[in-house]
Design goal:
The chain is mainly β and 350 residues long. Helices cover 9% and strands 45% of the residues. A nine-stranded antiparallel beta sheet has the order 1-9-10-11-12-22-18-17-14, with helices on one face. It has a six-stranded antiparallel beta sheet with strand order 2-3-4-5-6-7, with no helix packed on it.
């Protein structure tokens, strides 16, 4: 079953829109005017904004908040990136992402863009009942570029891991430059371990020096000598105020995928991404008096420094005339048994 969403479905009063197995989907509209779906299954709940950027907000697993904490508590009707920055997942690109400049906004044009269409699918396969949430965003600038960006989330009724499929279609008869980053924002969990399929050395991890006080400078100095200092979340001496970014070169398994976890014996925050398309792993951590964010990996096509840096360093990707790119990531929370298996897999990869 596929339901094409209409803005008339969304009012200030919450209304149950779909039930499917253990799923309940409720539609409502924030005071800001942003349409939202509240989705619940056996394991988790989250807010999804089908027309505003197809963002994920308020991701909660077994009653525990998994998404980052910022002063922005609910979706805002704005194109300014940081004024709407409190969610769990944002798509960034396509013309650029990262640091802004005069021609390229912060993290590109798509994070807060209004989608042309959105839908819910309900179905079942050998793994059980699932729902998909997706839509299409059309961009058309005469003589410059024309593309369709179509992300989709798939979630099973007994799972708290999203399969995030991205489809980008170049609709012009000329090649198109593109950049893409998936901004996945977990909350730091003190005492957990960062476990990921990358070697801890300067060849595989790059530290981007941030501006801060002496505590931040001292911590960055120590990290450059031993990157494993960041692997225990909340360890004494760590400082991420206002933030630190890293570039990580991942090892891939036999299927071409890399793995990252914020791991504990109770379970793990989890991301899997393809290293052929998303060759850069950006890590962003911020722990201030107002923000708590563990962007343990933001799978990306380039560094986070912006369009000109990507162009100068040969990191811009090109999609051929009328070609289509499709790939998928996984992001969410996995239980202890699965987390242990992924940990063992990573250890073998390294």
């Amino acid at each position: 079953m596929k339901l094409n969403l209409q803005k008339s479905f969304f009012t200030e009063t919450k209304q149950e829109l779909v039930t499917h197995g253990k799923f309940t989907v409720t539609a409502f509209r924030y005071a800001s005017g942003v349409e939202a779906l509240e989705v619940q299954n056996e394991k988790c709940s989250f807010i999804f904004t089908p027309f505003k950027g197809q963002q994920i907000w308020h991701f909660i697993v077994d009653g525990k908040e998994i998404f980052m904490d910022t002063p922005v508590k609910e979706p805002q009707n704005t194109m300014t990136y940081l004024k709407n920055y409190g969610g769990f997942l944002y798509h960034c690109g396509v013309i650029s992402f990262g640091a802004p400049d005069a021609e390229h906004p912060h993290h590109g044009e798509i994070p807060n863009e209004e989608y042309n269409s959105a839908y819910i699918c309900c179905d079942e396969d050998e793994n059980g009942k699932y729902i998909c949430l997706g839509g299409d965003l059309f961009h058309n600038t005469a003589f410059v570029r024309k593309y369709k960006f179509s992300p989709e989330l798939k979630l099973y009724e007994n799972s708290s891991v999203f399969k995030i499929t991205v489809r980008l279609e170049n609709q012009r008869n000329y090649p198109m430059e593109y950049m893409y980053l998936c901004h996945i924002n977990f909350r730091p969990m003190d005492g957990a371990k960062l476990i990921y399929s990358a070697k801890r050395d300067a060849e595989h991890i790059k530290l981007y020096r941030a501006v801060g006080d002496k505590a931040l400078d001292d911590y960055m100095d120590a990290l450059e000598k031993d990157f494993s200092l960041m692997d225990e979340v909340g360890a004494p001496g760590q400082c991420y105020d206002p933030e630190i970014c890293f570039g990580i070169k991942y090892e891939a398994d036999e299927t071409g995928r890399a793995y990252t976890m914020q791991y504990s014996d109770k379970g793990a925050c989890y991301v899997s991404h393809p290293t052929d398309v998303l060759s850069n792993g950006v890590r962003w951590i911020s722990r201030t008096k107002n923000e708590q964010a563990m962007g343990m990996v933001l799978p990306a096509t380039a560094e986070h420094i912006g369009y000109e840096n990507a162009k100068n360093n040969g990191q811009l990707k090109v999609l051929g005339a009328n070609e289509t790119l499709e790939f998928y990531m996984e992001a969410g929370y996995i239980e202890a048994e699965k987390a242990k298996a992924v940990k063992e897999k990573i250890e073998k990869m390294l």
